[in-house]
């Protein structure tokens, strides 16, 4: 399958840098297709897009806000990228997700160029394809969350700083680039952008018994460039607004590490499971690097392993556990997986059998889930009696038209995994990742176009449809006893001057100056007896109430 005139597909397309870059660009087109085809999802996607929208509405691009009040949980770089996209394409889903698609392209190109520089053009292109063809690494570039941009800068900071250790001729320049990248990571998601780099360098120093340490002038070069980037926002904000937002921001970061914020509490091994299953197929292949000792080349394997273990252990210790927190592990694992693929026959038969078994089990489960998912929603009459959550049942009862063609969305992955198992059994690891990765990309694309918009109508679609119907209306809109950001973004809420609108008691009983709409889940039905509110509709597990302005 992967042989053309005696050469593998990867060898053929990596024959020249120009051809390889064109191949990477063609692959990255997948990241852009369909990203505006489904509403943003609560909480994170809508939360971040709303921060960008409010920057545009207020004209204040240095203050991160939600509901037009300071939002100290995040730094602004990602929102600036969304603002640029929204200025060009409008305030909509495509623009909110576009920065990650662009950084998907940049990430694939970066992997190719680094692989080519230190190994070969073939290595670089295979590395880019393995990352492209794995589940969560591919999916996140089609999302509106912060982590893909954050991971890109973290990866560059580690790359440049660790390279400065082994390249004394250009160490100052590399340290400076590392500082710029680390500063950009901090401006993207906060202090963890520096913490991951510092811990990786510390672990690397310990593992190498402090044989290579940075000189003072290199530390100074890193520090100055790091400060140039970070002070651009932190310093300006403190000069303009004092230290309140900065202090609140640091406090929130501490809370993330010390307690399960927003109820995101999981067992210690949570991220290990997420990475193993979510990064298929690269995660399965990378296992060989940890189970069989291999000769290190250019110290890259050691760097990548240090970065992987720092991230996975740190976020396993952190009390707040969310799936994308460990997404930084995907980049070092993809490097290790590439090494395994290109040296697959050098691994022991027992280890190759283990990889084949894991590949078969995880790949088959994922392929059948993607393939059968539309069938499940086409046969909800069989599923609903098994559910005991009235809110979820009401969502499933929303009428959605399924044609049956949606069942084809999982076929590319099913075929890709089947071919992957066959090729891996023949010890043709490169052919296995090509077939599986291609099937993964096409199935995710078909799912995004044909399946996900219909599933979304069963979950949050009814509420968002209601919010969109109120765009441009001179009214107050809020949720009642559940947290959401959707009503801000999808009503395009203005910056109303009346501060009382954030006071639920005032909305319920106070002297309101505009009509009030409240959205409640059907499991919270105490508004039904409230004398000031009238139930105007109920759909998808949500009740919609209205309060008129008193005469």
Account of the 3D structure:
By secondary structure, the protein is mainly alpha-helical. It has three domains: 344 residues, no CATH class; 111 residues, no CATH class; 86 residues, no CATH class. Helix content is 62%, strand content 6%. The strands form three sheets. It has a four-stranded mixed sheet with strand order 5-6-8-7. It has a two-stranded antiparallel sheet with strand order 1-2. The longest helix is centred in the middle third of the chain and has 30 residues. The protein is globular. The N terminus is likely disordered.
For this entry, give a set of tags.
globular, two-stranded antiparallel ribbon, 8 strands, mainly alpha, 551 residues, four-stranded mixed beta sheet, single chain
Query: What is Rg?
Result: 25 Å
| Terminus-to-terminus distance | 76 Å
Strand content: 5-15%
Helical content stands at 55-70%
**What can be said about the biggest beta sheet?**
4 strands, mixed
Instruction: Give the helix tally.
Output: 26
Shape, please?
A: globular
Q: Overall mean pLDDT score?
A: 89
Low-confidence stretches: 1-5
Provide the structure class.
mainly alpha
Could you tell me the number of beta strands?
8
Counted up, domains total: 3
Strand order of the largest sheet: 5-6-8-7
Short summary of the structure?
By secondary structure, this protein is mainly alpha-helical.
């Amino acid at each position: 399958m992967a042989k053309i005139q005696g050469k593998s597909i990867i060898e053929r397309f990596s024959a020249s840098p120009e051809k390889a870059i064109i191949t990477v660009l063609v692959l990255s087109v997948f990241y852009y297709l369909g990203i505006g085809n489904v509403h943003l999802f609560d909480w994170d996607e809508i939360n971040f897009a709303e921060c960008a929208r409010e920057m545009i509405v207020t004209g204040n691009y240095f203050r991160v806000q939600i509901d037009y009040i300071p939002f100290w949980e995040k730094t602004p770089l990602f929102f600036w990228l969304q603002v640029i996209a929204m200025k060009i394409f409008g305030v909509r889903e495509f623009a909110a997700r576009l920065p990650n698609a662009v950084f998907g392209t940049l990430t694939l190109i970066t992997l190719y160029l680094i692989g080519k520089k230190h190994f070969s053009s073939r290595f670089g292109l295979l590395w880019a394809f393995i990352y492209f063809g794995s589940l969560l690494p591919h999916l996140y570039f089609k999302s509106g969350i912060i982590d893909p941009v954050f991971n890109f800068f973290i990866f560059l900071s580690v790359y440049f700083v660790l390279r400065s250790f082994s390249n004394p001729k250009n160490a100052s320049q590399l340290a400076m680039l590392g500082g710029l990248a680390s500063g950009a990571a901090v401006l993207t998601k906060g202090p963890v952008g520096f913490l991951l780099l510092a811990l990786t360098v510390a672990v690397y120093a310990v593992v190498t018994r402090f044989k290579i340490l940075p000189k003072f002038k290199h530390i100074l070069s890193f520090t100055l460039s790091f400060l140039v980037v970070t002070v651009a926002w932190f310093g300006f904000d403190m000069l303009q607004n004092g230290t309140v937002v900065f202090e609140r921001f640091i406090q929130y970061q501490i809370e993330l590490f010390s307690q399960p914020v927003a109820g995101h509490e999981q067992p210690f091994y949570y991220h290990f499971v997420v990475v193993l299953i979510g990064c298929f197929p690269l995660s399965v292949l990378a296992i060989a690097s940890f189970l069989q000792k291999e000769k290190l080349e250019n110290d890259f394997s050691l760097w990548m392993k240090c970065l992987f273990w720092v991230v996975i252990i740190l976020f396993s210790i952190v009390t707040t556990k969310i799936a994308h927190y460990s997404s930084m592990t995907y980049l070092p694992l993809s490097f290790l997986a590439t090494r395994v693929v290109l040296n697959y026959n050098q691994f022991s038969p027992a280890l190759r059998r283990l990889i084949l078994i894991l590949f078969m089990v995880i790949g088959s489960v994922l392929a059948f889930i993607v393939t059968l998912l539309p069938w499940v929603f086409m046969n909800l009459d069989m599923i609903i009696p098994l559910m005991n959550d009235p809110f979820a049942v009401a969502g499933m009862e929303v009428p959605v038209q399924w044609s049956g063609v949606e069942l084809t969305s999982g076929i590319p992955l099913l075929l890709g995994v089947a071919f992957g198992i066959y090729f891996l059994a023949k010890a043709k690891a490169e052919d296995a990742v090509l077939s599986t990765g291609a099937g993964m990309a096409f199935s995710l694309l078909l799912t995004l176009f044909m399946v996900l918009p219909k599933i979304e109508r069963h979950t949050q679609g009814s509420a968002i449809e209601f919010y969109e119907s109120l765009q441009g209306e001179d009214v107050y809109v809020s949720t009642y006893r559940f947290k959401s950001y959707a009503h801000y973004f999808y009503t395009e809420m203005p910056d109303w001057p009346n501060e009382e609108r954030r006071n639920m008691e005032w909305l319920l009983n106070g002297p309101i100056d505009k009509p009030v709409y409240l959205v409640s889940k059907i499991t919270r039905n105490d508004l039904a007896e409230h004398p000031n509110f009238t139930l105007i509709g109920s759909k998808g597990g949500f009740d919609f109430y209205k309060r008129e302005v008193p005469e």
